[in-house]
Write a structure and sequence with these properties.
Radius of gyration: 31 Å
CATH architecture of the largest domain: 3-Layer(aba) Sandwich
Largest sheet: 9 strands, mixed
Structural class: alpha/beta
Shape: elongated
Helix content: 40-55%
Number of helices: 19
CATH topology of the largest domain: Rossmann fold
Strand content: 5-15%
Order of helices and strands: HHHHHHHHHHEHEHHHHEHEHEHEEEEH
CATH superfamily of the largest domain: P-loop containing nucleotide triphosphate hydrolases
Number of domains: 2
CATH class of the largest domain: Alpha Beta
Distance between the termini: 64 Å
Length: 534
């Protein structure tokens, strides 16, 4: 369709000739930017005819979305009148433009009359407004692309800063202009009832991504989509071991793809821990590569499922929140990830906090992580440090006020969990039950926005650096104190299923992982390649 008269003659609405050298003309292409002058005129005319028309498009359009300067000032005057609870019509808009000193820029009184004569009603105002918005987004994308091309030709440009800035600009454009519309109650009730019916048909009460620990899943119903989960603990409590455990369970047992971002440890170190846990081999022996023939056989037979697990590990150090978003979006698109784990929050950088302190930066990161969880509709588990206040209490049990560097972590999180091992603090028995705390690991849920708080006891096996369900605790304690169900060449981890206790975790419940120190031993470099399993 041919362009309208105002485009061809290049006159503004007030009769002022446009500058033919205006930067609005696309550089090097000889084309004018995308716009729809007719849609802009139709919207402005409708707004001056129907007093309620503005409510349908106010959240959709901003003044800068209009192509013509005259239309921008007219729309700004209409917004100001609406904000001051004044009527919007031909007379009030003219007076507002005159009061602001913008009447001539807006084309004068005659042009306002012309706008109202172009439409009969405001019936299609929202449709026309969306056309304006689409053209504006096109122009902004062209502007961003033009800037990227210019900067990319500059040898002095930092290419990684350019990539980050470009993504931020495009993301900001989409977030600002592609807002989600509201949903009516009837729609929401129908969706909710459908979800409830699907849950009713399930055999399990776990509605999210399972952790693999039945006791914990009963309390949380699994890791819930769009939730930000903070797992906090003092050093040596087993944070990394715990998240590796739940990542392994989700990926191997339940076939849920998991993304793991490790800012502290190298990827091969995490894999080494997973291997120790999966094969139930002494972590120290694996680190040194001093494995006997039967242990190599045990390792080979136990890690086959692990090698096929949909776990994706990224060990980029000092990861910025912008880079994390980029990587997660890509993994969501390509690998359909259902769980994101970050180890750990305090090692991330905000990248956009200028002149602020570390507490403000952490606050910015925690907000961004919550936004990421909601955008991708996946649970995000972020590990966090606790302050030394914990050490000053007799029982050493953490609480919400111990979250380090920012109270906003507690505010942004949907769930806050603490990991606590009394044995580490030489607390050898429970003060109430007087039972031994040997190998006991407690997950304390200090906050759960959509569920109860409480605590769940797990078993931490230091030898294999792994967590298991508490049902296997008696056998492992007997093993540790009595000397060695796994000390001979004929031993298999499944032998524990036949132990006298009779309450041993099933193999599918016991594949958690390690949280020993973060050494840099090169596991694969120390192996005898003739006998290695890979």
């Amino acid at each position: 369709m041919a362009e309208n008269l105002s485009d061809k003659t290049q006159f503004s609405p007030g009769g002022v000739r446009k500058n033919p050298k205006s930067p609005a003309v696309l550089q090097g292409l000889g084309k004018l930017p995308p716009r729809s002058i007719e849609a802009e005129q139709a919207v402005l005319g409708a707004l001056m005819l129907e007093k309620d028309a503005i409510t349908g498009i106010l959240d959709l359009l901003k003044p800068e979305a209009f192509y013509e300067d005259a239309h921008k000032v007219i729309y700004s005057a209409i917004i100001k009148l609406f904000g001051d609870s004044k009527p919007v019509d031909l007379v009030t808009v003219k007076n507002q433009l005159q009061s602001d000193g913008n009447l001539d820029i807006g084309g004068g009184p005659l042009y306002l009359v012309e706008l109202t004569s172009k439409v009969a009603s405001a019936a299609n105002v929202e449709y026309h407004a969306r056309i304006i918005l689409e053209k504006f987004i096109q122009r902004e994308l062209i502007k961003i692309s033009d800037k990227v091309i210019r900067d990319a030709y500059e040898d002095t440009s930092d290419i990684f800063e350019l990539l980050d800035r470009t993504e931020q600009e495009i993301f900001s454009l989409s977030q600002t202009n592609l807002r989600r519309n509201y949903m009516e109650m009837a729609q929401l009730v129908a969706i909710t009832l459908k979800n409830l019916d699907e849950l009713r048909k399930k055999d399990s009460s776990t509605t999210g991504v399972p952790s693999g620990f039945e006791e914990l899943d009963e309390l949380t119903s699994g890791w819930q989509p769009s939730d930000l989960v903070i797992l906090a603990a003092r050093p040596a409590m087993g944070k990394t071991a715990f998240v590796l455990s739940t990542a392994r369970n989700a990926a191997v047992r339940f076939k849920r793809p998991v993304a793991l971002f490790s800012l502290e440890m190298a990827a091969h170190q995490l894999v080494q821990r997973l291997i120790c846990s999966e094969a139930e081999l002494d972590a120290q022996k694996v680190r040194t590569g001093k494995l006997q023939a039967y242990e190599w056989q045990q390792l080979n037979s136990k890690i086959s499922e692990l090698t096929k697990a949909p776990i994706y590990i990224d060990d980029t150090p000092a990861l910025s929140i912008a880079d994390l978003r980029t990587k997660c979006r890509k993994l969501k698109t390509e690998k359909k990830i259902e769980l994101v784990i970050i180890d750990y929050l305090q090692l991330m950088t905000a990248g956009n906090v200028k002149g602020g302190n570390r507490e403000q930066e952490i606050a910015s990161i925690s907000r961004a992580l919550k936004e990421l969880a909601k955008e991708l509709n996946v649970p995000v588990i972020a590990l966090s440090q606790l302050s030394r206040q914990v050490e000053n209490r007799p029982d050493k049990q953490p609480q919400l006020s111990d979250l380090r560097e920012s109270g906003s972590i507690e505010q942004d999180a949907d769930m806050v969990m603490f990991l606590y091992r009394p044995e580490y603090y030489k607390i050898t028995e429970d003060p109430v039950t007087k039972e031994s705390t040997r190998g006991l690991g407690t997950v304390i849920i200090g906050k759960q926005r959509n569920g109860p708080v409480g605590s769940v006891n797990l078993q931490y096996i230091d030898k294999f650096a792994k967590f298991t369900s508490l049902s296997g605790r008696a056998a492992y304690q007997a093993d540790a104190e009595g000397g060695g169900m796994d000390s001979g060449p004929n031993f298999q981890p499944s032998d524990r299923l036949n132990s006298p206790s009779g309450t041993i975790t099933r193999p599918s419940k016991m594949n958690e992982s390690s949280d020993t120190t973060g050494e840099d031993d090169e596991y694969f470099g120390s192996l005898d390649t003739d006998s290695a399993p890979f």
